[in-house]
Amino acid sequence: MLKALLVDDEINILRNLQSVIPWENIGIEIVGTAENGAKALELVDRLRPDLVVSDISMPIMDGITFVQKLRERGITCECVMLTGYQSFEYARSLMRYGVKEYMMKPVDYDELERVIRRTAASILEKELKAKQEQRVRNSAVNLVYEKNLHDLLLDCSSVDIHLALDEEGKKLDLNRAKYLLLLVDLEHYAQLSLGWDEKERKLWNFAIYNVLSEVLCSENRNYTVLQMREGEWCLLIEQAGDHLADEDINRAGSWAELIRESVRSSIKLNVHVSIYVEWIPISGLGNAYKRVHWESSLSPASVTYVAAAQGQGAAQIQLDMLWKLTEDMVTGLKQCSRMKTEEAMQALNTHLKIIPDSSLLRVRQIIHYFVLNLIREMREVNMLTQSEEDAIWVKLNQCIRVKDVLLVMNEMVSQCLVVFVSKKTSVVLMESAQAYIHEHMSKDIGIDELASTLGISNSYFSLLFKQHFGVTFVEYLTKLRMETAKAMLETKERRVAQVSKSVGYLDGRYFMKLFHRYTGMTPTEYRISRRN
């Protein structure tokens, strides 16, 4: 209900205003009455009405002075003014203060009702527009915040407080922020996804992301879910208040089990969860993610607890160097840099020769892990055909020694370089765009964002996209969202509003309109038809 305040020094007019106009039917509640502008000003400060209906000629403080005082205090409620005098000077003064409705006495109550209905509709429309704009701002803020966190985890960025804003656009002091880090990895993803085509892989990843995005909502904690790559997500749980709560670290184990159970019950897949058991400042996210990533890859447990490193011996330093070199190799491949990739590969082979025998088992685990993850990376950028991947798995299954696994890794890296060099730049750009669209489908993404991410102009992006996919960006995104919505309606009991939000449409009515245009049915009708 909107709130209204009535102001007039004539008691009979106040009574008529209250009784003759069908306020409740219009959707308005009368929250107060006043006999002059001074009294009304006190009530406005306390009651904050959406609408004021006021006389102009009143003792102590007249209506025009009252409206002037309202605007000086920054109060923007709508005003309908009544007067017994027809004066252009009155009208001009009121217009200066944003008053749109001005009526003569004696009051025509039928006309006044129409004016009030029109004004109420205008207030609601303005509020709806403000909420929509706020949602867009919040979405943009969240995207910037998530992008900043993602880059910090991958050590691709330094802390930049200018990239973090609250909902009102004010800068946040990220230097004071602390996080708990939980790494969620789909168990046996490389082998599990072997039989999935691209659409299935995207759908399964999207389904797990949705579960993770909702799993801790009941805990009333602020947290961010970031997909680091296919089959892997980071949950960053923000510190609550100014104090670090040890009980939150203790509760992390129960949160990990909740995550595992939620994914298992919703999607029938198993995930491994690793917990970094210390609060992490934002500047330490990169090192913490790296350590959790390494330790979790070698842990057989379903939930792994990872502590900060307490000093490093010679063996640990050598193993850390091994991790760094494998990461450098993947980075070189992603950047299509033959020189950087080959340098990292040569350094890796050299380094392996000086690893002591006591560490060879761990070395084998690391290299085996790297090969599995290299397969993941190659899939994401379409560098492997199904037959080529099948051949790699056959070779891996035949490996007995570290040297054998290393040989497979060398062959894979060489194969990646050949594929990257042979591809046209435009193809690489569009494959990167496609991966980005699938990853951010649930967000408010547009051509500006994608073109900026790829480092090209909007017009060039649109041209390449249409040439590569045969449809425009909007047509591609709409089809992707509609197909994903269809799959969600078929596979899980979710309200239509939840499905709409999950595929990137905050306006449920707009989603239903698009869905009907795309399928010829409403979402509910589609769900029933698939069941039948």
From TrEMBL:
<dbReference type="InterPro" id="IPR011006">
    <property type="entry name" value="CheY-like_superfamily"/>
</dbReference>
<keyword id="KW-0238">DNA-binding</keyword>
<dbReference type="InterPro" id="IPR009057">
    <property type="entry name" value="Homeodomain-like_sf"/>
</dbReference>
<feature type="domain" description="HTH araC/xylS-type">
    <location>
        <begin position="431"/>
        <end position="529"/>
    </location>
</feature>
<dbReference type="InterPro" id="IPR018060">
    <property type="entry name" value="HTH_AraC"/>
</dbReference>
<dbReference type="InterPro" id="IPR020449">
    <property type="entry name" value="Tscrpt_reg_AraC-type_HTH"/>
</dbReference>
<feature type="domain" description="Response regulatory">
    <location>
        <begin position="3"/>
        <end position="120"/>
    </location>
</feature>
<feature type="modified residue" description="4-aspartylphosphate">
    <location>
        <position position="55"/>
    </location>
</feature>
<keyword id="KW-0804">Transcription</keyword>
<keyword id="KW-0805">Transcription regulation</keyword>
<dbReference type="Pfam" id="PF00072">
    <property type="entry name" value="Response_reg"/>
</dbReference>
<keyword id="KW-0597">Phosphoprotein</keyword>
<dbReference type="InterPro" id="IPR001789">
    <property type="entry name" value="Sig_transdc_resp-reg_receiver"/>
</dbReference>
<dbReference type="Pfam" id="PF12833">
    <property type="entry name" value="HTH_18"/>
</dbReference>
<protein>
    <submittedName>
        <fullName>Response regulator</fullName>
    </submittedName>
</protein>
